[in-house]
Specification:
Length: 479
């Protein structure tokens, strides 16, 4: 059977990225399209930064009118092809010609419009999907509308949770003001008296996936379920966790154009990258000095409170630490001042910068990721590609991808700690430093890292099976 799958998402490399969602939506379709009888296309909002960078490639397909409450909004549909994938873009100046992606007071309305436009576009495309695969809350309503409006015959739906913390919540009035649907559909979109776009996706989708097996278990609990665990328990038979992969052509130290010295296994070249970076960031230049790195959104999820608690104490060791990130003012302010206090040891690079990120992966000995929770995490996988040793907290996808180094058996591809506790983090940061100074253990650990492999090869096959199963199921589970 032919799998025609339309991905619906709010970000996707190389067009627009704020985090790992963009990496996944950017790389998975390219890999899936190499499988027989499978074509994935992707639909995204046309943000201003996409127009700026891609206007020469964008081709207008059509325009149509989208009802948003009592107003009619024009949607202009564009497309372009990139690396074997057709990308559609929904343009509307009012909603998307703005700086950046999210964080506007009317984000809910913007993604109501986007979701409705995607559904109304289905009959206009020269591509007839049999699966609509929506990603995270921004696309949740597209699943609900596909189920309610039935825009094309026998369309199956999949909703993937990349992070259950962000749910897209609006006042209940939004149902009448924005959605133009009969009242009996409120129940499938409402949660705790509010419209919840993620709940709408979870309720209406034929199947639900998330991005690691551990996270699939965790989100069924009160601690990790962010209030939505009752629905996930109700739908547990339809929920699976498939681990994310990374694009190993893109994240490849051998060919990466952003880094100073390309390498595959050479420690010498890695040290040269370190020295290059130290010079660039104004750190003392010493290729032997252990370098710890974090590249992250500066939000509570990423374990920054733990790092705050121990950073001054840890920096008494003979190490350097670089944090690249942007996000909550609380953390930006803290690390700015921490770097002022520790001038020769800590750099806080406050911004979002792909080139610096690559240079940090290439330069670092350790990649620190002490997350409070982590659906999958791609950064630790990218770190492995660049032979930086991940130091992680055992949660979600971090638990599924990083095995702690065991001195007795010589197994493991990183370091980890269990409890969300700053002194456990401090202990493991120091333990990792001891191993760094023990050449035999360090060499064994490096060999294990070279063997770790997190491309899309296996996970894309899991998706193919999943698509085939869903297409061979006659009955919808929800109506
Ligand atoms: P999340 O999706 O929760 O942000 P992931 O680990 O899954 O976390 O993915 C993060 C992605 O975003 C990685 O590709 C990482 O390199 C990138 N990234 C995060 N912060 C920055 C930054 N400040 N500058 C450049 N890239 C960043």
């Amino acid at each position: 059977m032919q799998n025609n799958i339309l991905f619906v998402a709010s970000e996707c490399t190389p067009f627009v990225k704020t985090g790992g969602l963009a990496d996944v939506v950017g790389s998975l379709p390219q890999v899936l399209n190499q499988h027989e009888n499978t074509e994935v296309r992707v639909v995204l909002p046309l943000y201003e930064e996409i127009i700026e960078k891609w206007h020469e490639e964008l081709e207008q397909v059509t325009s149509f009118v989208v009802p948003v409450g009592w107003r009619n909004q024009e949607a202009i549909l564009y497309q372009l092809s990139y690396h074997g994938v057709v990308y559609y873009f929904i343009g509307n100046d009012y909603y998307f010609s703005r700086k950046g992606t999210y964080g506007y007071y009317d984000d809910g309305e913007r993604f109501v419009f986007f979701s409705r436009a995607v559904i109304d576009a289905l009959s206009l495309l020269d591509f007839k999907p049999n699966i609509l695969h929506a990603h995270d809350w921004q696309a949740g309503l597209s699943v609900a509308l596909a189920n309610i409006l039935q825009p094309i015959e026998a369309l199956k739906t999949i909703f993937t949770i990349h992070n259950i913390k962000y749910q897209g919540i609006m006042p209940l009035d939004a149902f009448h003001e924005l959605l133009n649907l009969p009242n009996d559909h409120i129940g499938g979109m409402e949660w705790n008296g509010l419209i919840n776009c993620m709940k709408a996706g979870l309720y209406h989708a034929d199947k639900i996936t998330t991005v690691s097996p551990s996270y699939a278990d965790e989100i069924k609990t009160t601690y990790f379920g962010e209030g939505l665990y009752p629905i996930l328990n109700e739908r547990h038979e339809d929920l699976v966790g498939i681990i994310n992969g990374i694009d190993t052509d893109e994240y490849n130290p051998k060919t990466d154009q952003h880094i100073a010295f390309n390498y595959s296994h050479s420690r010498k070249k890695k040290k040269e990258n370190k020295e290059d970076l130290q010079e660039k960031l104004g750190l003392p230049i010493d290729g032997e000095k252990p370098l710890y790195v974090m590249i992250t959104r500066l939000v509570e999820q990423k374990g920054l409170h733990l790092v705050q608690a121990i950073i001054d104490e840890f920096l008494q060791e003979d190490v350097q630490f670089v944090l690249l990130g942007t996000g909550d003012y609380e953390f930006e302010d803290y690390f700015y001042h921490a770097a002022e206090r520790n001038k020769d040891k800590l750099v806080a690079y406050l911004g979002f910068d792909e080139a610096i990120a690559r240079q940090l992966y290439a330069a670092s000995d350790f990649f620190v990721m002490p997350s409070l929770f982590e659906p999958c995490g791609l950064s630790q996988l990218i770190a492995l590609q660049y032979k930086a040793v991940p130091i992680v907290r055992e949660t979600g996808g971090l638990k599924d991808t990083i095995t702690p180094y065991d001195e007795k058996t010589g197994t493991g591809n990183g370091f980890s700690f269990t409890n969300y506790n700053a002194h456990e983090l401090l202990h493991v940061l120091r333990y990792a430093l001891n191993i760094y100074h023990e050449p035999d253990h360090w060499a064994t650990l490096q060999k294990n890292i070279i063997k770790s492999h997190f491309s899309w090869e296996d996970s894309s096959l899991e998706y193919i099976d999943f698509y085939q199963n869903i297409l061979s199921t006659e009955e919808k589970t929800q109506d």
